[in-house]
Amino acid sequence: MQTESTGNVTLEQVAHHAGVSLATASRVLNGSTRQVGEKLRKRVVASAGELGYLPNASAQALARNSSSLVGLIVHDIADPYFSSIASGVTGGAEEEGLVVVLGTTGRTPHRETELLATLRAHRARAVVLAGTRTVDEAGNRNLAREIERFTAQGGRVACVSQGGLPADTVVPANREGAADLARRLIAMGHRRFAVLAGPPDLRTARDRLDGFHGALSEAGIEPAYHDVVHGAFTRDGGYASTERLLAAGTEATCLFAVNDVMATGAIAALRDAGLRVPDDLSVAGFDDIPTLRDLIPALTTVRLPLEWMGREAARLALAEDPAPEPRRVPVSAEVVVRDSTAPPA
Amino acid sequence: MQTESTGNVTLEQVAHHAGVSLATASRVLNGSTRQVGEKLRKRVVASAGELGYLPNASAQALARNSSSLVGLIVHDIADPYFSSIASGVTGGAEEEGLVVVLGTTGRTPHRETELLATLRAHRARAVVLAGTRTVDEAGNRNLAREIERFTAQGGRVACVSQGGLPADTVVPANREGAADLARRLIAMGHRRFAVLAGPPDLRTARDRLDGFHGALSEAGIEPAYHDVVHGAFTRDGGYASTERLLAAGTEATCLFAVNDVMATGAIAALRDAGLRVPDDLSVAGFDDIPTLRDLIPALTTVRLPLEWMGREAARLALAEDPAPEPRRVPVSAEVVVRDSTAPPA
DNA sequence: CCGGGCGGGGAAAACATTTTCCGCGGCCTC
DNA sequence: GAGGCCGCGGAAAATGTTTTCCCCGCCCGG
Prior knowledge:
The structure is a homodimer.
Chain A: H1 11-18, H2 22-29, H3 38-51, H4 57-64, E1 69-74, H5 80-95, E2 99-104, H6 109-121, E3 126-129, H7 137-152, E4 156-160, E5 168-172, H8 174-187, E6 193-198, H9 203-218, E7 228-230, H10 235-248, E8 254-257, H11 260-272, E9 282-284, E10 301-303, H12 306-318, E11 328-331, E12 334-336
Parallel strand pairs in A: 1-2, 1-3, 3-4, 4-5, 5-11, 6-7, 6-8, 8-9
Antiparallel strand pairs in A: 10-12
Helix pairs in contact in A: 1-2, 1-3, 2-3, 5-12, 6-7, 8-9, 10-11
Chain A binds a DNA duplex through residues 8, 10-12, 20-24, 26-27, 30-31, 33-37, 40, 55-56, 58-65.
């Protein structure tokens, strides 16, 4: 039977209603340091329920110097790669009774630093950085500095995907996964590859490219660098990159896109150009995005447990122990061969 | 040249460093009510920069009784329907310098009420409710009550998709869109339809079903109710529903799934059952999810401007004027005919 | 029988900011 | 020349909690 007429019920009102002091009411309803006698405890709980008391989170954060907020920074929440990770992070945070603050950078690197500062201003308890790093040294240094401020203030930071940042990191096997994929494609009979390499300054993209090329070299295949085309890390980027590749002419029998959304764009571009996949050209991606599993032809790709990675990052960021030293959680990547690849004609 | 050694710089330190009072420092750096002389203003700004001052957002929220937080409540952020909307909401909020708090319900209706209370505790300035309503009257009443508390406290609420809730709402033309789609399919020659209707208690699902059936009736076609199968509003729900439909046997020539992700599952199930789309059975969806546009066969569907809808909801929730009365912004839905539908054999 | 601990309750300080209220000096007007 | 108003600065109250410190009474041991 809530009776709250208007405005907000404060702890003081609850205390008064229960005939106890502010301190006692606080100890009963929020604090956990000290015991309160059964009799008073019950009175306070009853009063709180009756008045519909809801603690003012801002005041609590101020007094405790720590809020129940967990930050999550991604480039673009509409990208299924990030929304899968976000799903894991929110799941992990909500289990702990925490609330997720979502920041999106729109792929602007310095926005990440800005958002981290905002989160520090809010005394967020932890932050998960899911945007992949660039190779921009200055930007990374700024970000590292901001991370140190954040941790100095008592917050914790975890990253998804690599980066030499001073924070716990969930590290997917981008290099090894791409290398494994290359070996599978070579075993299939392919010898000439084209690569949609994404943005040249993105670490994730570069690692996958490197891993792929490494395995090619091992097998004695010279990567044809004119068949490596850079472009945006999106579906449309994949489409455009593929168009450029076709316009320039290529003798590749297999096309590797460094992520699934680009591979999706590539398949569309090939289809629009009158080419069949995999008959005329094989296509492979990376990530194994759940939403894209129903594509036809089904995409050969490298599976990453994205949601699990997000959850794990949340776990790291919310762990009790202060972790004297950045931890790294390696995540293995598994090649999944489906219908978009076939032996070359 | 930041010199902040450790801990956090408070406004008091800035004021002291600049040789002014707390009030003046506050007015320069945050408040906007009153003017401060050019001389002092410069001194304060310089000191703040030098010390690396960052306002404590909790303290601000406490003193102002309003934070810079905007809530966003969805069922499942990994679902592209919601992540598209989320993209619009975050875009709109970040333009205003606000921060988005993401809550996910996991499709548990009362979680929505819980999350709204949490947001109220944080003195969130506004909330966008994107989860579709159920027809559960008691749950909706609780939610409406919580919305009223939230607005009484000075916050504003906007909803995406229908619901008789006391809040501004962006209302997509679910009925009309489904009806238009039905008419197009009838014009194509179809007379027998099966429907994957989603959960029976979900308003959005029911409205689309009603609109579809309404147009059928208008055309003198009796809906075959045994060809309406309910199931989860997800890809796997669509798959399972289609399996059940096939197991029961159907003479339908066209299958309407009330959203795209279910349609995706349906196409997969049909393919696994050895049926061709659209040759053996036409399939249509609803939403026009961007990520699913590259599906083959390309999905005939009803387009909703999801990201725009999210942005618009944010705009409503952040509008200046108090809006004496809930506003409704209608959103028209446009049929997009693609390859997954064809005249019946 | 007295002193010391201890368990539990309350007063008040602390948290960092905004905002109200007050005062002072200068300028304008009559 | 005097009174009033206005612009700008500062002191202090207010915001809603947590937490420290103190105190009281009770129990137990000496």
